[in-house]
Each structure stands twice: as structure tokens, then as C-alpha cells.
Specification:
106 residues, mainly alpha, three-stranded antiparallel β-sheet, 5 helices, 3 strands, 51% helix
């Protein structure tokens, strides 16, 4: 994703599905871990999403314990909740991708 100031990116394994760690979500939206965790908890509490399907614990190199990873569905929901410049840029970027996909599919 490109922002006005820079390109935001990190390695994502697209072989199956997109899963991001809390740290990656924080980088994506330029927010603190506390705020992102609060959004995740609110999404789960609202029952908009099934926790068991959309949160995975994975062992990561150089970590003593498994790390939680969140599905693309959770990342998108967070992207439409955050009230930051990056959140706005993310929504524009996501909308452009969807528009291009719809145009291409016609």
C-alpha cells in the first residue's frame, strides 16, 4: 500500500490466505498495539466474526511462544474502523482494488 509519505510493506505468505500478526497490523495502520488489540477484541465481542476461524497461533522463528495471526477479514474490519490518515488511505486503496477487480471481471 502506498501512502503520501511512503510505501508500507512487509512479507506476506499469499500461498493460502493472508494472515497478519498484531505487529504487522500496527505497522499497516500506524497505530499502537493497545489500540489494535482493542479493535480486535471489539470485533470478536460484536460477534461479527468467528474467533476460532479467524485467529491462528503460529510458531515464529526467534519466538519462545506462538504468535497470534489474524485473518484478512479481521484486517479489513480494522481498516474500516481506524480513524487515522493510514486508515483513510487503506480504505481508498482497498476500494480502488475492488473497483479494478469489478471492472476486470465484466
Amino acid at each position: 500500500m502506498n501512502t503520501k509519505n511512503k510505501k508500507i510493506g512487509f512479507d506476506i505468505d499469499l500461498s493460502e490466505s493472508t494472515w497478519l500478526s498484531c505487529e504487522q497490523i500496527c505497522i499497516l495502520f500506524g497505530m499502537s498495539r493497545t489500540v489494535i488489540v482493542k479493535h480486535i477484541n471489539n470485533i470478536i465481542k460484536s460477534e461479527k466474526i468467528n474467533e476460532s476461524i479467524n485467529i491462528q497461533k503460529r510458531f515464529v522463528e526467534d519466538s519462545d511462544k506462538p504468535i497470534k495471526f489474524y485473518s484478512l477479514d479481521i484486517v479489513l474490519l480494522i481498516g474500516y474502523k481506524v480513524n487515522t490518515i493510514r486508515g483513510v488511505e487503506f480504505r481508498k486503496w482497498a476500494s480502488d482494488i475492488l473497483k479494478d477487480y469489478i471492472k476486470r471481471d465484466k
